[in-house]
Amino acid sequence: MGLNQVRRCSAATANWTASASSAPSEPTNAAAAARRAAVLVRPAVPANSPGTITPSLVMPRSGSARTCRAVALTSSTAGCMAGGKVAGSTADMTGPPVRTPYSVQSVMILDSRPEAVLPEYHVTGRDPPGISGRDTGPVELSPFRIERFYARYEHSTRFMLSSSDCESRTIGALLEFEPDAHERLLATWCGYTESPGGPELRQAIASIYERTGAGEVLATSSAEEGIFLLYHALLRPGDHVIVETPCYESALEVARSTGAEVSEWKRRYDDGWAHDLDALERLIRPATRLLYLNQPHNPTGTLMARPTFDRVIDLARAHGLVVFSDEVYRELEHDPAGRLPAACDAYERGVSLGSISKSYGLPGLRTGWIATREAALRDAVATLKDYTTICASAPSEFLTALALRHREVLLDRNLGIVRRNLPLLDGFFERHAATFAWTRPTASPIGFPRVTGIGDLTRYCEQLAEAGVLLLPGAVYDQPDHIRVGFGRANMPAALDVLEAHLPAG
Ligand SMILES: Cc1ncc(COP(=O)(O)O)c(C=O)c1O
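Above: inputs. Below: predicted complex with pyridoxal-5'-phosphate.
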């Protein structure tokens, strides 16, 4: 691809213009062509010139109507976007102004026409200097404590008694779901897959939702990727985010890494892990853009009451907040009557984060997804995904779609395990009530008892791991008086026996 830059830049106002051209070439297939239909132009903006970019895209001389997007890539990992419909050869497109506190390093033009071979583009922009004056740069991610702890023990300890995923299956067992599945897997083409996910996969995911269709689903390579993409696509310094805590660490840390200010909507053991709506309302500010929720909840295994959920959505709507709803434990409510609506169905600015890992028990497939009816949110995530994984693994796509078409079978078995194991835990905690205070989970395969009289729980969990049973110390959630237990595995009764044998005397 030839890149031809035209620079015109005044140091004071940082007006810039850049254009690019590429030599035509024949696309070999739609996915490859879609990837090729993107061009990077590097405007000559002065370094460290934060401000507003207003991309205006003058279209190539020839061309039919299509959608284009200009994505400004900045010195932060957060991109900014502008986009619009382009019609005809001379029309130009001006996107809405996009604010960035970072210096613009390049602008990427994405053309939706699969057959486009990027003729010539011309972009103009304006970076008024000093608008925010905050070129803080990206904030460093601190080590993910849950993952670091598990990295030491997960694959070497005999019993996992703290896993958040349910009992898994082999590929062979999945293939038994459909008579021709084995042949179809063998015939799966190991080329690039479609970036938003193939139609079969998106359809299977959409069947979970009531009002959200296959076209409103974006597959990711794990829910973890979805967290990274959504936060970084949406947030930048100057924004404010509210995160329900305690939480899966990346929900908090990745939000912080965008440079946005993060407030915790704290839930407390002493309040029975209640959701304090007044406290939530007090946290909302004019700069608040997003509220992260996780229901059913990691680590407590509790589930928000329906009237509370409705109130949270009302509040979000009143303030125009995006609700980023981490629903990776959804469909594993111990009583399905308590299931909350998916945020993508309940709210026009709701984003549901899903995963094949937890309730369905297939974390090795590394498939997650984002579902939202708001097109701009999907677009922002899709644009950033070109810089992480581009598209999902072809065999995982196939197997995830297959599994989701039979998700009732997966859920029935996993719910059966959870329902059998939970009374055993109840009995255990009753026998050791002096040590453990048990808030009985109502959803998911995890719970978060408070522990007294054992001392340093991280040290205790390390010793237990040596003895063959893995608990997760609450310190990884900034809750050092708790441990996380998991009861979604078939061998949990044997694991509990080992734990009981290694309780400190007293
Ligand atoms: C609340 C929550 N969200 C997201 C994830 C990530 O799931 P995945 O395996 O799909 O990356 C986890 C994993 O533990 C989780 O507990």
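Confidence is low (pLDDT under 50) at residues 1-68, 72-106, 112-136.
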